[in-house]
Amino acid sequence: MDAAGDDEGGGPMTYAEIEQYFNSLGLEGPTAQQRIDCIFSIIISLLPPRLVPAPEAAGDDSDDDSFSLTSSDSEASGSGADPLALHPAAIGDGTDHISRLPDALLSNIISRLPTLEAARTVVLSTRWRGVWAATPLLVDDAHLVGADGPSGIPIVRAVSRCVAAHPGPVRSVRVTRVSFYCQEYVLQRLLADLADKGVQDLILFNRPWPLNMPLPEDILRCASLERLYLGVWQFPEINSAHLPLFNKLRDIGLFHCIVRDESVNALLAHCPKLEVLSIVLSYGSPSRLHIVSRSLRVAVDWNSTLDEVVVQDAPCLERLILQTLERRRPIKIVGAPRLEVLGFLDLNLHELQIGGTVIRAGMNVRARTTVPSLKILAVTVHFTRNQEAKMLPTLFKCFPHLEALHVLD
C-alpha cells in the first residue's frame, strides 16, 4: 500500500478504500475492518501516558482503597479506625484554607485536573478565576467525552473552543479519539491558536482515516513545541518558504504518517535541540531515513517500510532502535561516535555497512569497520541458516567493546 502514490493520484484514501484494499489481498484470518482497527490500536498503545488520567478511569486505580496519607499500609488495612475520629480537624471548620495558598500552588493544582474540572474552578471566586486564566491549559479529548462532555458539540469543535477561549498559554493538547475529516477549517483554526498560544506538548491523531489528510502548515509555526506526536496525517511539505520553527523541539514521533524524505531531512536540520525521532508504521513515505543531526540521541524505526537507514553524521546518537517488516534494507553507519545501543539487527533482512564497507561473515575487520562505542547489541538470527550464524563472530570484531548481546531466534 503505497500511501505516497495514492496522494499523487487524487483524493484522500478513505476508510472504505483501505478496507477494499485489504479485502482485495484475499488474506486469511481477521477481516479488513479488524486489520484496520488493529493498526490504530497498536499506534495508540505506543503513546506516552496521559498527563492527567481521564475522569472515567480515575476510580479504577487499584491502590485507592488501601492508600492512606496518615497511616502505614498495615494500620490502614487492619485497624478499621475512622480517620475523622483520629483527626477531628479534618471535619472542617468552615474556613477556606485552600484559597489561602499562593497563586503558584493553586495554578499547579488546577493543572493536574481534567480539562472540564479545571475550567469549573472559575466559579469558586474571583481569585480562582484569575488563577485559571494564568494557568497553562491542558486539553485532552478523553476529558471531553462521556456524561460530563459538551452535549451536542463535536469533540473536534470542543477542543478548538477550549483552546480559543482560554486567555492564558497552552501547555498540552492531546487528541486521539476523533476524525478531522470534513473539519478542515476547525483543524486550521486549532493549529493557528496553538501556535499563537505557545503550545509545548502536542499529540494530534486523525482517527481513523483518511490516511493522507493534509496537516495544515500552521503546525510549522508552533515554535514553543517541546514534544510533537502526529498520527495518520500527510505532513506539510517543507521548503525554503515554509521552514519549521521548532527551536525547542526535543521529541517528535511520526505515526503512520506520509512524510517526504526532504521534509524529514529538513526537520532534522532545523530542530537544533531534537533528541528523539520515531518513525512508526509508515508505508512508502518516507522511503529512507538519512540522519544528519548534531543533537539527536535516539532514532527509532518501528515496522516501517524504509528502503534504507543511514547514520551519516550524528555525533550525539546513542541508540538506534529497529523493528523491521519482512523487507530487506541496508543499515549504514558512517558517523556515530557515541552509538551505544543497536537493535534489533536482523541478519536476514539487514545489510550492515560500517564506514562504507559491507559487513560479511568471516571478513577481515579493520579499524574503519568498527564501532568501538557500542555496548549493547540485539540481533535476530536463524541458527539453521549457516551464513547468519557465521555473522556473529564477525559482529563481535566490529563491536570490540560489546557488553551485552540479546539474541532473538
List its salient traits.
19% strand, five-stranded mixed sheet, eleven-stranded parallel sheet, 16 strands, disordered N terminus, 409 residues, alpha/beta, single chain, 27% helix, globular, 12 helices
What distance lies between the first and last C-alpha atoms, to the nearest angstrom? 29 Å
Alpha-beta content class? alpha/beta
Shape: globular
According to DSSP, the number of beta strands is: 16
Oligomer description: single chain
Q: In sequence order, what are the helices and strands, one letter per element? A: HHHHHHHHEHEHEEEHEEEEEEEEEEHE
Helix proportion:
25-40%
- Average pLDDT for all residues: 80
What is Rg?
26 Å
Helix segment tally: 12
Placed side by side, the strands forming the largest sheet appear as 1-2-3-4-5-6-8-10-12-15-16
Q: For the report, how would you describe the main beta sheet?
A: 11 strands, parallel
Strand content: 15-25%
Uncertain parts: 1-12, 57-79, 147-152
